[in-house]
């Protein structure tokens, strides 16, 4: 809505400028100063246009192909049953604009422990995966009194792992086939238990999904 409003303002400024063309030379310094905001609006419009182009570029795949996200119901099939844990009814959704993606998610509970699992098909969008890929490519790691976070390999794929001993929260993330993001967030549990859920997922089959 804001972009539409800016375009309308630019149009109004252009029309007003054309109507007053014959009086430009007669404009007084105060009137010329009053016209300066019109230039600011035009610059803002150009900035919005450049931003939109940048966002469009980021949504493209590294190989330039136009990928379409798979149906979220296909992703739900990769949410496994885990012995000893109660699995919630899987949920999912798909979207084609302004960002293309599909996702499926569920949660597992056991006593006071809970693990939330989400699978996202990014359709090879760099915008959705680039921040994580940069994090992993640098080999990032951090350790404190309360735990750690690090880039690592998970199931043979690039990923990351976080642990907070104070809150007993564990997180494991994976980028599968440069396309599918799998994230697991556990509370009142540990990374080993969360990794156990990852071990139940067929990541190889997920990587080949189209």
Task: Summarize the structure in words.
With 210 residues, this protein is α+β, with helices and mostly antiparallel strands. Helix content is 37%, strand content 30%. It contains 7 helices and 9 strands, in the order ααααββββαβββββαα. Strands 1, 2, 3, 4, 5, 6, 7, 8 and 9 form a 9-stranded antiparallel sheet that branches. Helix 1 (2-19) runs antiparallel to helix 3. The two termini are 35 Å apart. 19% of the residues are buried. Mean pLDDT is 79; it is low at 1-27.
Order of helices and strands: HHHHEEEEHEEEEEHH
Task: Report the average pLDDT across residues.
Answer: 79
Number of helices: 7
Number of domains: 2
E-strand count: 9
**Would you identify the regions where 5 or more consecutive residues have pLDDT less than 50?**
1-27
Second CATH tier, the architecture of the largest domain: 3-Layer(aba) Sandwich
Percentage of residues in DSSP E strands: 25-35%
Through-space gap between termini: 35 Å
Quick one: overall form? globular
Biggest pleated-sheet summary: 9 strands, antiparallel
CATH fold descriptor of the largest domain: Protein Transport Mog1p, Chain A
The class by helix and strand makeup works out as: alpha+beta
What's the Cα radius of gyration? 25 Å
Helix content: 25-40%
CATH class of the largest domain: Alpha Beta
